Amino acid sequence: MEISEYKTFTICSEGYYKDKGSKFIAVAYYVESEKEVKEALLITKKKYHDARHHCYAYRINPKSEVSRSSDDGEPSGTAGKPILNQILSFELYNVLIIVVRYFGGTKLGVSGLILAYKSATRDAIQESKIVSRHITSQLELNFEYHLMNQVMRVIKEENIKIISQDYDNNYKIKVEIKKNTKNIALLKFEKIRGVTITLLKNK
Q: Which one of 3.40.50.300, 3.40.50.920, 1.10.357.10, 3.30.230.30 gives the CATH number of domain 5-132?
């Protein structure tokens, strides 16, 4: 099912869990690409270079979802999956959570590990500030001066954000439209004869 808005957070936060001497430090990042995921992993592994495990999960791109998880040496399904399940439970996108484990000398067992990674992740998420964001499209409108009032009327009616304006021979306005109002706005612009619409990119 397609969505028009999603939840995320924009500040880095940390969570913590301890059991039988083992310490679990969860670090939550806002990321928009797998390149940013790799960069955050390098930073975290460098910072916690002496830890035994650097397990993680991420979920990015609400328009075309990509999600991955890694147990990084822990028993299969005991680390990456519990981290990812918390991200899914909070309905978050564009989020990477890395849980660093310092082994305390006592094995926790499968259920103990799942609880530990889940708890550290949940703590990090609860320490962050979750916000809602709209999925948007960016359009460029080209038209002659005499159409300005009609174009601006649509922009005002549909509460469209203007990114930039430029005037050479014709007017050129770059706008950002929320997905849930995009079709209505496009119909209104298309009804104004002389307006050229170019789709720039989606966010």
A: 3.30.230.30
Question: For residue 31, what pLDDT is reported?
Answer: 94
Cα angle 54, 60, 66 (rounded to 5 degrees) comes to: 90
Q: Work out the burial of residue 111: count CB atoms within 10 Å of its CB; fewer than 13 is exposed, 13-18 middle, 19 or more buried.
A: exposed
Q: What is the pLDDT of residue 168?
A: 77
Hey, what are 91's tokens? 């309905």
pLDDT at 1: 54
User: Does domain 135-202 match CATH 3.60.15.10?
Assistant: no
Question: Which sign, positive or negative, has the C-alpha torsion 44, 46, 47, 51?
Answer: positive
Q: Where are the domains of the chain?
A: 5-132, 135-202
Bridge partners of residue 73, in order along the sequence: none
Kindly give the parts of the chain with pLDDT less than 70: 1-2, 201-203
| pLDDT on residue 5 | 84
Q: What b/e readout covers 23-37, taking b as 16+ CB neighbours within 10 angstroms?
A: bbbbbbbbbeeeebb
